[in-house]
Each structure stands twice: as C-alpha cells, then as structure tokens.
C-alpha cells in the first residue's frame, strides 16, 4: 500500500472531472470547519460552556495566532521537505495530507460541553495546528498544471465543496436542533463527529488522486542550508514588493475579515435584535447552499471576465444585503422571517462570490512571484497568506468579544439590552466598511487570463535561456503592471546564474 502511494505522488496524469472533484473535496475541511466555527463556536462557548464573550473570543484568537505561527512553519517545511527521506518517497505536500487525515477527529472534541477554559483552549489550538495541512494542499494546482483553465477547474471544484460544506455547517445543526432540541450541547457534538469523519475521508481521497512536482523539476531547487529566522522574514517580506501580491493581500484580508464580522454576530442578530430562534438562524444560514450553484457559475465567469469585475459585482451585492438586514431591524416589519430569507438569499449569493474569487486568484499568484524571484515559492506564499489571515482574524475576534462585553452583552441571557443590540449592529457596520475597502483595492487589480498567459510564457522563455533584451513590448508592459517592478529587475534567477 505504501509503495503504491509513493508511486502515485509524482505520477502526472490528465486533469479530468474526477481529478478536480478529488482535489476539491478537501476544501470541505477548509471551508466546512471555518463555517462551523464562524457560525456556532462563540454561541456554543457562551451558551453551553459558561464562558464570557471575551473568554470565547480569546480562545478563538489564540487558536488563530497558533495557526498563523504553525502555518509559517509548515509552508517553509513543506517547500523543503522534498529533500528528506520521507519527502522524497511520499511527496513534500502529500506526506502532510496523509498524516493529518486521522487527526481530523480532534474537531469533534471541540464540541464537548461543560469543560473548563483550558480544555477548550488546548483542543481548539490543537485543531488549528492540524488544519494548517491546508497550506501544502493549496499549492497543488500550481504543481499539477500551469494552464489557466485547468487551474480554474481545480479551484472551482475546491470552492464547490467549500460551498457545500458551508451549507451543511448550518443545515445539519438546524436539523439536529429539531430532533434533539437546544437544551443540551449534544447536537453540536454529533455535528462535530459527522464533519470530522468527512474531513478525514476527503483528505485521503485528495492525497490518492492528486500529484506534485518532483524536487528536481522545480525552477530553483531549495538549498540544503537551513534558513535562519532573518532570512525567513526577508523571504516573506519580499512578497510585498510584488504589486499583485500586495493587492491580493488587501482584498483578501479586508473582504474576508469584513464578512467574518457579519457572520460572527449574525446568530446574535437573529436571536436578540430580531427575536428569532436558534433554529431560524440555522435555517437562514443554511441558505449558503446557493453557493454550490454560484461557485459553478463563478468558475465559468472567471474564465470569461476579469477577476476585477467579479470582485466589484460581489462587493456591491453583499453590501446591499447587509443594508437590507439593518432596514429589516430598523423598520420592524411584520414578516421579519420572510424578509430575512430574501435578504439572506442575496447575502449568501454574494458571500459565495466574495469567498470564491480570491482563492481562484491565489492559484495564479505564484507565477507572478516567480517572474520576479525566479523561484517556485507556492508554499511560502500560502504560509504568508495564512499568517496574515489568522493574525487579522485573531485580532478582530478578540476585539469583537471585548466590544460586545463592554457594551453590556450578557452571556446566556435570553434578552439583551439596547446597548448590546446596538453593539451587534455596529459590528456588522464595521464589517461592511472593510468590504468597501476591499472594493476600492479591487478596482486596480489587473490580473486576467490573457495577462497570466503572457506571464507563464515569459517564465518558460527565460527558463529556456531566453534573454531579457528580447522581450516583446506587450509582455514587458504586463510584467511591469502586475509586479510593479521594472522588467530589468525581474527574474532574479537569471542574475544569480550570470
């Protein structure tokens, strides 16, 4: 069995629908775990674990910090792991995917009620470390193909499963609430067990049906010398020199953090501002099932129109939906639940696009970095994105928890004060402002199918010994626009060889 695994790791194959599905299913873990945590964890801690909003937010924030630090390590380790005995045999990416599969059942242990603060902190941080397997996983499209349409197929499949997971993250708990009630935390534990099983199986399917590049075929094989911390920091900072990377970081962090803030308090908004039930909130969030269709349509549109236009469409629609939430609360309509279903349907359509487009774009960023650095640094880029995402998310999560507590939010209460309700609305407003910021950055983002093809062709030309002096004007202009660097200062590999 182990010999079969070793043979398949480096065996390049045609990217079929089965390949795309097998690759994409692991984002059931990436998207599903985050969806469950975002929708329910703070509520679970406050309602069933006798924790304050600040304590609950502190646990989540500590986990995200741990995830950020471990993510930095796993990116560099996986980039270099091909030089080890195990890495050569089982792949520098696939080794970690196989290893993490049985550890996914840690997720179920997060949902045991009536434990103490330190138990929840330890279990959540442990799962955050294990979930950094998503970093080597995220590099696979870059390793499996350099074709725009094929990478789009893989990324679309990934987001398709993320959308399914996001829907089930609210639908399954909603059904469990109906069957078992909300007096105990048993529905949450059963939900955690179901998701843990799916996560484990998905990772095994992905590992078996995907492949990666052998170390010998990389643009610049990694040095045997270990990098010290200063060199590592320098490497990560170098990504900020690349214009498209900077823009992507801003778009991704602002839009995802803004959306997280809305999702973080949405259950509280339904329960305390609109006086709906937890089952109503679960059913509303289960409308994220529309993301399945939106992802498929988005994948088609991504190959036809520019990411910029998709960003603009997504941000405009999600802002309208957030405005609708506020108006429904402010004007106290009689048909609150019906109107919330309509507004939430629009929100989930836009939210799916907000989550979809940045991850589609990510698959092409390593090429833009490679035209500058001359290296394949997909793992390091994924680590940096993970570091930035978890750092900002950790900060925002703890600030939201403190903000709610400071404004009179009472844990476990059936009714909240007016100041607490206003605080919930203000968190949603701040989330909307971050989405507006992402929109502004996106208006200057110029990566598209044509420009990416020019970049990959230029990389191949330079790899094959082509001279910079022979570049055509169109390619030179595109390289400078996407990198923000003079063409003469790009592709440092050539300089190192001279």
TrEMBL record:
<feature type="transmembrane region" description="Helical">
    <location>
        <begin position="424"/>
        <end position="442"/>
    </location>
</feature>
<keyword id="KW-0472">Membrane</keyword>
<feature type="transmembrane region" description="Helical">
    <location>
        <begin position="157"/>
        <end position="176"/>
    </location>
</feature>
<dbReference type="InterPro" id="IPR039672">
    <property type="entry name" value="MFS_2"/>
</dbReference>
<keyword id="KW-0762">Sugar transport</keyword>
<feature type="transmembrane region" description="Helical">
    <location>
        <begin position="95"/>
        <end position="112"/>
    </location>
</feature>
<keyword id="KW-0812">Transmembrane</keyword>
<dbReference type="GO" id="GO:0008643">
    <property type="term" value="P:carbohydrate transport"/>
</dbReference>
<dbReference type="GO" id="GO:0015293">
    <property type="term" value="F:symporter activity"/>
</dbReference>
<feature type="transmembrane region" description="Helical">
    <location>
        <begin position="386"/>
        <end position="404"/>
    </location>
</feature>
<keyword id="KW-1133">Transmembrane helix</keyword>
<feature type="transmembrane region" description="Helical">
    <location>
        <begin position="310"/>
        <end position="329"/>
    </location>
</feature>
<feature type="transmembrane region" description="Helical">
    <location>
        <begin position="284"/>
        <end position="303"/>
    </location>
</feature>
<feature type="transmembrane region" description="Helical">
    <location>
        <begin position="118"/>
        <end position="137"/>
    </location>
</feature>
<feature type="transmembrane region" description="Helical">
    <location>
        <begin position="341"/>
        <end position="365"/>
    </location>
</feature>
<dbReference type="Pfam" id="PF13347">
    <property type="entry name" value="MFS_2"/>
</dbReference>
<keyword id="KW-0813">Transport</keyword>
<dbReference type="GO" id="GO:0005886">
    <property type="term" value="C:plasma membrane"/>
</dbReference>
<feature type="transmembrane region" description="Helical">
    <location>
        <begin position="188"/>
        <end position="211"/>
    </location>
</feature>
<feature type="transmembrane region" description="Helical">
    <location>
        <begin position="51"/>
        <end position="74"/>
    </location>
</feature>
<protein>
    <submittedName>
        <fullName>MFS transporter</fullName>
    </submittedName>
</protein>
<dbReference type="InterPro" id="IPR036259">
    <property type="entry name" value="MFS_trans_sf"/>
</dbReference>
């Amino acid at each position: 069995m182990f010999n079969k695994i070793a043979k398949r790791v480096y065996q390049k194959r045609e990217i079929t629908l089965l390949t795309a599905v097998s690759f994409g299913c692991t984002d059931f873990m990436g998207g599903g775990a985050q969806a469950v945590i975002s929708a329910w964890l703070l509520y679970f801690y406050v309602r069933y674990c006798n924790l304050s909003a600040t304590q609950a937010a502190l646990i989540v924030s500590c986990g995200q910090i741990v995830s950020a630090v471990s993510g930095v390590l796993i990116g560099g380790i996986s980039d270099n792991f091909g030089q080890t005995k195990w890495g050569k045999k089982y792949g520098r990416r696939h080794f970690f995917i196989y290893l993490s599969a049985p550890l996914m059942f840690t997720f179920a242990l997060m949902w045991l009620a009536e434990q103490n603060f330190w138990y929840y902190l330890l279990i959540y941080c442990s799962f955050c470390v294990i979930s950094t397997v998503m970093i080597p996983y995220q590099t696979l499209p870059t390793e499996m193909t350099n074709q725009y349409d094929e990478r789009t197929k893989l990324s679309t499949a990934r987001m398709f499963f993320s959308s399914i997971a996001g829907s089930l993250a609210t639908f399954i708990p909603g059904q469990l609430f109906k069957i078992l009630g909300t007096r105990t935390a048993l529905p949450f534990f059963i939900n955690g067990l179901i998701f843990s099983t799916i996560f484990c199986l998905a990772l095994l399917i992905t590992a078996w049906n995907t492949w990666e590049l052998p170390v010998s075929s990389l643009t610049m094989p990694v040095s045997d010398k270990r990098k010290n911390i200063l060199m590592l920091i320098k490497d990560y900072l170098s990504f900020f020199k690349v214009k498209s990377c900077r823009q992507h970081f801003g778009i991704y962090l602002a839009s995802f953090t803004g959306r997280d803030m809305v999702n973080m308090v949405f259950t509280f908004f339904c329960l305390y501002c609109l006086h709906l039930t937890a089952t109503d909130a679960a059913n509303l969030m289960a409308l994220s099932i529309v993301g399945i269709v939106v992802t498929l349509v988005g994948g088609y549109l991504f190959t036809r129109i520019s990411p910029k236009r998709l960003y603009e469409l997504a941000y405009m629609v999600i802002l309208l939906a957030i405005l609708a939430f506020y108006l429904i609360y402010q004007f106290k309509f009689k048909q609150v639940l019906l109107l919330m279903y309509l507004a939430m349907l629009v929100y989930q359509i836009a939210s799916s696009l907000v989550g979809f487009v940045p991850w589609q774009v990510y698959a092409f960023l390593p090429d833009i970095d490679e035209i500058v650095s001359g290296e394949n640094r997909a793992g390091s880029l994924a680590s940096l994105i993970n570091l930035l995402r978890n750092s900002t998310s950790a900060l925002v999560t703890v600030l939201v928890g403190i903000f709610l507590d400071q404004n009179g939010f009472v844990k476990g209460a059936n009714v909240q004060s007016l100041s607490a309700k206003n605080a919930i609305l203000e968190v949603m407003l701040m989330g909307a402002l971050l989405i507006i910021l992402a929109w502004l950055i996106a208006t200057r983002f110029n990566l598209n199918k044509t420009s990416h093809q020019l970049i990959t062709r230029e990389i191949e030309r330079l790899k094959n010994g082509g001279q910079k002096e022979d570049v055509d004007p169109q390619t030179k202009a595109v390289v400078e626009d996407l990198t923000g660097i003079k063409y003469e200062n790009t592709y440092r590999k050539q300089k190192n060889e001279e």
